[in-house]
Amino acid sequence: MATGRTHRPATRSRGIPEATVARLPLYLRALTALSERSVPTVSSEELAAAAGVNSAKLRKDFSYLGSYGTRGVGYDVEYLVYQISRELGLTQDWPVVIVGIGNLGAALANYGGFASRGFRVAALIDADPSMAGKPVAGIPVQHTDDLEAIIEENGVSIGVIATPAGAAQQVCDRLVAAGVTSILNFAPTVLSVPEGVDVRKVDLSIELQILAFHEQRKAGEEAPGEGGADTTPPAAPPAAAVRRRGEGSEQGPDGDVPAVMPA
Amino acid sequence: MATGRTHRPATRSRGIPEATVARLPLYLRALTALSERSVPTVSSEELAAAAGVNSAKLRKDFSYLGSYGTRGVGYDVEYLVYQISRELGLTQDWPVVIVGIGNLGAALANYGGFASRGFRVAALIDADPSMAGKPVAGIPVQHTDDLEAIIEENGVSIGVIATPAGAAQQVCDRLVAAGVTSILNFAPTVLSVPEGVDVRKVDLSIELQILAFHEQRKAGEEAPGEGGADTTPPAAPPAAAVRRRGEGSEQGPDGDVPAVMPA
DNA sequence: CCGTCTTTGTGCACACGTTCACAAAGACAT
DNA sequence: ATGTCTTTGTGAACGTGTGCACAAAGACGG
Predict the structure, then answer these.
(1) What is the C-alpha to C-alpha distance for residues A80 and B75, in angstroms, rounded to an integer?
(2) Which residues fall in a compositionally biased region of kind Low complexity (chains A, B) (predicted)?
(3) How many contacts, defined by CB atoms under 8 Å, are there between A and B?
(4) pLDDT tens per residue across span A48-79
């Protein structure tokens, strides 16, 4: 099939660690706020606090970009805003298409955060013919049939998928075939893309499930005991796999979950 | 100011690595699909492909939960669905409130993925009095004044913030004070919360900026040369900090950006 | 009951990310 | 000029995450 990679292989693009890249927008936001208040310089300590990170981490992050600070003083806010913007590629214009103009797609189209930083909604695309022409956020919705033409005409390289899960892969394939090389996916599916195409996903459901995990843990630690059964355990495990759980490694006292396996 | 932690300290909750927890929902989704197709068992290889991860990683992830597979056969789909659901705390009901019923809040309220997995939208809350009583996704919007009462009455421990950035911290503080211990933040701000409260953020703007970074890199690698200036460089750096950029390490020729998009 | 064949579970090595702690750079006062 | 004081930039130690590769578990056929 040769479908290609699904996850970016953490390319460590040209020396700047992925983790650092992911934090740059955070710093940029904090710096922009300072800039608007006409604050001339800021120390790593202050900026780190504003961005919600450790100051050593922030300094190391900046060190990957070059040495833009002045010892004993801190960082020049304006200069740093510029350097980070440039590094992130925000000094240029990025036309973006949003595919799938349902509730979410419309919300995204209306989101102000787009234009603020070099991103421009070039087109809204939906498969529903009855939506064609209707303006959403001041932009007329176009039909999926014209997807390829729209991508090409506008030189779009970033696509946002806000379709139902079932349509996502197909839309993705068409976007990629038309020349899109970066995709932000809001549909709850794993997208398969060829090498060289970046996919980032935003998944409400996954985030909530992660929160639920931690929430359950908190509850379990506070109120132990509580042998109440939750739901019916499913059938039975295949054969004889109902043992073990820590295999005598770490896990000090016991080796059981807060209140597991009823039957 | 003693405001408290901003980022979860990667607590390694009871032996299950954060990275694993973040993947469990992915596995669960793939397994649910298999279950609906009445597939009885699945190998780590197949399931890994469906979830878009490496099979060794998947096996290691499952090993943290216990030994639920059968060698030579694979994993029992139904059983595994149950085990993961239980581990994630999805066998119980999680009432959730959404604060800020604008475009995004409404889209979230309408999102079907909520109910599907143990999450129930217990209430919609907005600060705009004219919205009060209006039904969104079949649920009447309530006013912010009643936030505390709503949290308490429904035993809500998970809150979703979809307000403008300016209101987010204040809403967050009220949620936490009322007993919420997990927050999913869609507002583009760094939230400050006391210890023991989990915050996860979803930030469209940050995701796009990360994509733009990689996109710029790709463009720069394909079309080198191109000494075109991008935008006006800001004033001048503070003092004498206009040197270096790789400090004679990698980065062969020059030390400037690959060469940005002409126009 | 034994041999073969598939697939799990995991030890190990490596890559990546985070944090500490401190030398060196520079501002600023005297 | 020289000294002091602040704050950066980074070496080094540590922790977390990933992936290979393989022994052992068990299914299944004869």
Answers:
(1) 52
(2) 229-241
(3) 275
(4) 999 999 999 999 999 999 989 999 999 999 99
